Amino acid sequence: MAEPKNEEFLDDIEQAEAEEQAIAEEEILDSDAEIEALRAERDALQDKFMRALADAENARKRSEKDRREAENYGGSKLARDMLPVYDNMKRAVEAATDEQKEISAALIEGVQLTMRELLNVFSKHGITLISPEIGDRFDPQQHEAMFEAPVPGTKAGEIIQISAEGFMLHDRILRPAQVGVSSNQG
C-alpha cells in the first residue's frame, strides 16, 4: 500500500508543478500585457511630447514673425499721418513764384531743407517715395487713377498727370501715387 501514497504524492507534485507553471505563464502573460500597456503609454506620451514640441516651435516662429512685422510696420499709422505734411510742404515750394522765391529765398530754402530731412527720416524707417513721371505706364500696384482723359499724342494707360506722389513702407504700399491716366484708344 505504500505505492498508492507515492502515486498520490507524485500526482500532487505534478499538479503543484502544473499549477506553478500555469501561474508562471499567467504572470508572463500579465507581464507581457503590462509591457504592452507601458509601451502604448510611452508611445502616447512621446506623441504628446512631439506635438507639444512642434506647437512650441510654431509659436516661436509665429512670435518672431509678429515681432518682425511690428518692427517693420508698427509705425505705419504715424507714417501715413505724416504724408500730408510732405505733400503740403511740396505744394508750398511749388506754389511759390519766382518773385516770391527771390524775396523769401531763406524761407523757401528752409522748407526745402525740412522736406529733405523728412524724406531722410522716412528712408531711415524704410519708407520710400513712389514718384512716377508723365508718360510712364500706369501700374495699379503702385498708382491710383484719379481720373481718365483722352489726351492727344498719348497711349491708353499712360500717366498724364501726377496729383500726389506715393509711398511704400518696406514692401507694402503706404499710399499709392495719385495720377491721371490717358484713355486714348490708339
UniProtKB/TrEMBL annotation:
It is found in: Cytoplasm. It comes from the Bacteria. Residues 6-106 form a coiled coil. It holds the Pfam family GrpE. GO terms for molecular function: adenyl-nucleotide exchange factor activity; protein homodimerization activity; protein-folding chaperone binding; unfolded protein binding. Keywords: Chaperone, Coiled coil, Cytoplasm, Stress response. Participates actively in the response to hyperosmotic and heat shock by preventing the aggregation of stress-denatured proteins, in association with DnaK and GrpE. It is the nucleotide exchange factor for DnaK and may function as a thermosensor. Unfolded proteins bind initially to DnaJ; upon interaction with the DnaJ-bound protein, DnaK hydrolyzes its bound ATP, resulting in the formation of a stable complex. GrpE releases ADP from DnaK; ATP binding to DnaK triggers the release of the substrate protein, thus completing the reaction cycle. This is Protein GrpE. It comes from Roseovarius pacificus. The gene is grpE.
